[in-house]
Amino acid sequence: MAQVRIENVVKRFGSVTAVNNVSLDIPDGLFVILVGPSGCGKTTLLRLLAGLEDATGGRLLIGGRDVTRVHPRERDIAMVFQSYALYPHMSVRRNLSFALELKQVPEKEIERRVGIASEILGIGTLLNRQPKQLSGGQRQRVALGRAIVREPSVFLFDEPLSNLDAKLRTAMRGELIKLHKRLGTTIVYVTHDQVEAMTMGQMVVVMKDGIVQQYGAPMEIYRNPRNLFVAEFIGSPAMNFLSGRFDILKGRALSTGGVFELPLDERMIRAAGTVVAGDIVIGIRPEHLTIATEGSGSKGDIHFEGTVEVVEPLGAETIIEVNCRGVGLLARVKGEILPEVGQTLNLRAESDHFYYFDKESGERVG
After folding, report:
1. What single DSSP character describes residue 69?
2. What is the pTM of this model?
3. Which pLDDT value is given to residue 191?
4. Of all residues in the chain, what percent are helix, strand and coil, respectively (each to 5)?
5. Structural Rg of the chain based on CA atoms
6. 29, 138, 228, 229: least CB-packed within 10 angstroms?
């Protein structure tokens, strides 16, 4: 196990900056997820840690040792790729042991490590099979086993579940969480899937354009997004956004098109003074929009009346899209609520659940 430190790391490919002055401190034994859209720099950052790319600037430390210019095989890491990359002509047992054989590890030690990995992953009955005789999930377990037998200080995972079907991907997420709990080894895991990030990671790094947008615990990032990008990227369905403006003199927030008017408390009035030109983006998560019924709600609630355009029943919950004066709002409600398309619906939300962002900078206000 080892701490991972990334200090002001830069990676350029010609005129393109893939990783832009990134600094992260990953404590020993933590499961950290790098998440973001394609091209955000997360895989490049992982490859820099693995030694598969050379940093243009900055330092990389594993277990307190500067490995910035150290050869990959000397970094004491094990990497699991998106593709299984198994040797097709070797048995499962040989796939697990081959890297140890190359390092001339004693035979008894190889047997011990292969036995432990097989037990952890439940692949003991598959050791004499060829990769072509395995299912996708079994191949992924063998790829994980090949990393485990090396007993590294750090595991690096590059979207290892993306080739699996939805059901198997969900099952493997649980297996990886159990694996980390059992081994206690530092894991840095790359994915574009924010569900994987929220369910697996102890800490999450959200990236965009090679820059870390936010680093924190999953629910902290969900509840307190630092900027517009994080607010939109983390959460499914995504947060609803409305253009608006602070009217400081009258102590209120107005949405463009007159969708709603919201009184501001003293804290928000102070924060409004930091916004350039008063232009804002107002956010509200779908689960904070509920259907208003007579006698429900409280005095400070904000109401949105509109026409139902889409209804998506998902069993335990229903996603409803309502057109409110030309603005589409998504609401997540209980599964038994199934309004008709074209029906007029009155949604409400508590003012405490609104988020405000500076329209020019995208930064969170207040």
Report:
1. T
2. 0.88
3. 94
4. 30, 35, 35
5. 25
6. 29
